[in-house]
Amino acid sequence: MNDFLNTFLNWEYIWKVFPDLLTTGLLNTLILSVSSALIGTVVGMVLAVMGLSTKRWLRWPARVYTDIFRGLPAILTILLIGQGLGTLARDVVGTNPYPLGILALSLIASAYIGEIFRAGIQSVEKGQLEASRALGMTYTKSMLLVVIPQGVRRVLPALVNQFIALVKDSSLVYVLGLLVQQRELFRIGQDMAANTGNLSSLVAAGFVFLVITVPLTHLVNFIDKRLRTGRKVESDPDAGDELDELTVSGKVQP
């Protein structure tokens, strides 16, 4: 039992690694996740619209893109982008692999987010589009103002779930060999574990990951519940009193 606790819960190593986890690892994990989520959301929406197009020259490229980046393992995509494009993009990013890590995560995220958006848009009843067209809106305006907002609202839980997956996938960027100040949570924990031969630093890194992902998981459940049950409308007791007074006075027939 003592050996188990010493291997996974050595408080000396945990307290030693925590400052780096919070000041460097957490910051870089959030930068990688949020940046790739924003880029992936924009590209994903474009992919969703292209995938729903009646024009084959728009629909097929979106389908091929989605199949490729959903079919490849995330770590393989990160290696191909980070190492393959690293030599081609050296004039732009130099030897810094950080932007390439964000690019790889964005490409992966956009493929999944695009499918989420496409499913949400397709779930909106066709009558919504027909009604907006009947009011004189163009197809583009109907999609932007009526259909897409409803579709996005319906897939909010799935979008938050995808962001949770993105936070965890950010740990794979370590394979690109980030600089010391660019290390994310997993890499900091792994480096200390390699130096000390003790896994407590990785347990500490896992704890910080849980601090990020567990609240988001509960947020997904909350959003999903609100979307399914709707917002509870509280009755106004004053309104009932006013109705009773009107009924007694004869202004409203009971």
Describe the structure.
The protein is mainly α and 254 residues long. 80% of the residues lie in helices and 0% in strands. The chain has helices spanning 2-8, 11-51, 56-71, 74-88, 90-93, 98-123, 126-134, 139-154, 156-169, 185-196, 200-229, 237-249. It comes from Amycolatopsis xylanica.
Give start-end ranges of low-pLDDT stretches: 242-254
Secondary-structure arrangement, i.e. CATH architecture = Orthogonal Bundle
What is Rg?
Answer: 25 Å
Give the overall shape, derived from the CA principal axes.
globular
Classify the helix fraction into a percent range: over 70%
Could you spell the SSE succession in H and E letters?
HHHHHHHHHHHH
CATH homology superfamily = MetI-like
- Report the span from N to C terminus: 76 Å
Question: How is the biggest beta sheet arranged?
Answer: none
Assigned CATH class: Mainly Alpha
Number of DSSP helical runs? 12
Helix/strand/pairing category: mainly alpha
- Count of the separate structural domains: 1
Strand content: under 5%
> How many beta-strand runs?
0
Report mean pLDDT, rounded to a whole number: 84
Keywords: Amino-acid transport, Cell membrane, Membrane, Transmembrane, Transmembrane helix, Transport
Protein name: Polar amino acid transport system permease protein
Pfam families: BPD_transp_1
Domain ABC transmembrane type-1: 26-220
